[in-house]
Amino acid sequence: MLSYPGCGLQATGPRAVKEHGGSVFDEAPGVVLLLTADTGGGHRAAAEALRQALHSRYPRRLVAVTCDPLTGVQANRLVGWVCRRYGTLLRAAPWLWLLVFHASNTTIGLRIVRRLLARCASVPIAAAVAQFRPLAVVALHPLLITPAIAVIGGHSPRPALLTVITDLGTVHRGWWHPAVDRVVLPNAGHSRPHRRGDGRGMDRCDVLGLPVREQFRLRPADPAARAALRASLGLDPERFVVLVTAGAEGVSSLAAWTRALVTGGADFDVVAVCGRNERLRASLDRLAALCSRRLVVTGFVDNMADWLCSADVVVTKAGPGIIAEAACCGVPMLLAGHLPGQEAGNTEIVVRAGAGWPVRGRRQLRAQVEYLRSNPTSLDRMRAAALRLGTPTAGDEIADLLARQVGLHADPVPERDSR
Question: Where do the domains of the chain lie, and which CATH numbers do they carry?
């Protein structure tokens, strides 16, 4: 991975850099600029998934450059300060985030936000476009679409502009703009036009799913390999394992879920992944030291797929990223809440697919975990439903869509020798 000064730019691919900072690439002919923001793990994960897919399918022809115009080095100071408090806001005052979400989701509110960001976020985007001259720009955050349009509108030839929606149930209206060339939808429920003139007609939409990183694309291993994986993580291969997580920001509800599980009468192991919330991790570390049951506490992990594939069930909030990743790993989900605003409706999608259940209260959480532990048939049925819900090839399909937009085609897969 190659890093560039300016707006938190990162480029990956086989191309060599001639000069640090003012880069010109030798081999690959095209750049895809990925616009994301460090506001929650979902946007980051989707951008990384798409970067990996482009590198895998078009290694000598396309290179991905990631730009964060909201919290990167070149971001506006005030905008950066506000956006970097996203995780703190969710943990301390989710009700305030709900107000912000709904206020910006109105016609007037969205118009105000777009005008502000069209100026503030355009500077780092313009720097990236001028430096890399991308063939395509991909917006993976709803607030970056208008600034991108403002920048690329003055370039000839104009880069292709795609939006990859990272929300599942409730989609913020900021995702839609008539100047976008293609819109990638996570599910068919968002394929109908929202209102006239917003450019979201069926002819511009592609239902491809939410992209997941390469580590989540492999199906669950056979029992022997799964036991070995558990052992490598310090888990007992024979025990029923419940994974508890609440996203990269580690919302405080995770502590209540964990305590409800380890203080109940059921006999199973619990793994709590606290993300970047160090205070939460310290609190659960103290609980693990006092708890007679087996409780494993971790912070942010890079091998989340290993933990998911090792678990019998995952307890989490209904975030789009964890839902997509757990589904690809075939893990049944117990959804014990959601962030207000964009995560409303996510639980219904999982329940309707048969891949998980909603959880209301600690007593119900313990009862549901114990039921699944005692009923392997129901557990297997939910695992199969989770796999059907997953979209492990979404990243590759989006990469192919991008390539078609810029006039490229995937390299043919060599035929295997039949001898």
Answer: 2-211+393-405 (3.40.50.2000), 215-389 (3.40.50.2000)
